[in-house]
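Pipeline run #58 for the internal structure catalog. This entry was flagged by the ingest filter as a single-chain record with no existing model, so it goes straight to prediction. Upstream metadata was stripped on purpose; only the residue string is passed forward. Reviewer on rotation: M.T. Logging verbosity set to normal.
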Amino acid sequence: MRKTLILAISIITILTISSLIHSKRSPVQATKDILGLEQKLNMLVEDEPELKGALAGISVRNAATGDILYSRMGDTRFKPASNLKLFTAAAALSVLGPDYTFTTEILTDGQVKNKILNGNLYIKGKGDPTLLISDFDQMAKDIKALGINKINGDLLGDDTWYDNVRYSRDMNWSDETYYYGAQISALTASPDEDYDAGTVIVEVNPGDDIRKRPSIVLQPATDYVEIINHAITVESGEEKNITIERLHGTNTIIVEGTIPKNAKTTKEWVAVWEPTHFVLELLKQSLEKYGISFDGSMRTASVPMNAQMLKGYPSQPLAELLLSFMKLSNNVHGEILVKEMGRVVKGEGSWEKGLEAVESEISKFGVRTNTIELRDGSGISHINLIPPNEITSLLFAVQNESWFNQFLHSLPVSGAPNRMIGGTLRNRMLNSPAQLQVRAKTGSIASVSSLSGYVDTKSGERLIFSIILNNLLNDAKGKMIEDKIALVLAES
């Protein structure tokens, strides 16, 4: 019995010594590293004057094991701003899949005779936020190719794939003019390849001479919005102070202020009122451009059962759409993805059902949904609440998913100059050890700044982190603090 006990102790001793010899780092060294990281982060946060009176939630995990290496208020709920998009993107990839597309359909309830379509033409939207003028031109070309020169009927838009609620429940009126607060419709259009759906781009350039009105260009060119130009061109060197706002409940855009004669273009993305009607106007313009006359009315209506589809137009796949969603932090895409998940999972394209689907899906990744509050898919609401530890928990779990590479690829990269690689991090952490080493989602709303993702360290490891700063008086200073923290992690 005694010999057996001695043998057992010897084996345990040998295994322990062997593990210490062959491990990359000894337990003593690992403990020192963790203590060093904790000390550095504590000093950084506690000595930062911008955080006096503010709240800082930080969570850091080992990407290989999921072990929490540092947590400061990690289980406290914070307003996450656009870091909430991490949950929306992961849920969408899991529910819909990276190859999922949104199809727009052209249909009719009539017949073609002598190059005349005797009946109505329908465009049915299923959530594609990437429709451009070029797409409507292609639709018109395809209709022309069917031998149609005239439509003897109405042009109708069907946006019933989603409900008719245009704004998430916490959207402020002060936000609705701007691209990040655009209305959500299953039938919408974008002015350029940033895909800010439901908006027009207003460009203001100096006038020909002093005291003259500036010139204003719309993209896309459209009569759907009315421009009222109260701005004035002033002497070179004088103050540039241009405001561009849409009046609530209308498509009247007011341009006011001063622009110096030598000033560069002022550009603003302005959200339209009722995107569905905007699409009808753009499609009508394309039809006329390709010689298809139309004398009927334009309105919204559901496609009747007897209608036949002339052609479908699928969007880019979800994995590609995520680039503009995550790298450029496109709010409209977040809300469309939520409604699409509601439609697919619950049979209803609404925020209520979509958020239920999101919560159900992220719970599969170990997120404790009983400690979070989700109000939208973009993070624009100040009532969204998520603890930093739940964000890093999600980011650890999704590493095992087949679509993780697409998820990781969608994240902004620190200091990467290409806009569709660096995204909202392209001008941050430049010329530092953290440049190109951080892949993370940024976030910013009033008094809130956040940054969560992955960082590759100097020692060759990968860390997962979430930094959420609330009650800030200066959001820009918050981003500087996040970069300092990311630098500490990169140098660990």
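catalog note: The two ends are 49 Å apart (CA to CA).
catalog note: The first strand starts at residue 55 and ends at 62.
status: ready for reviewer M.T.
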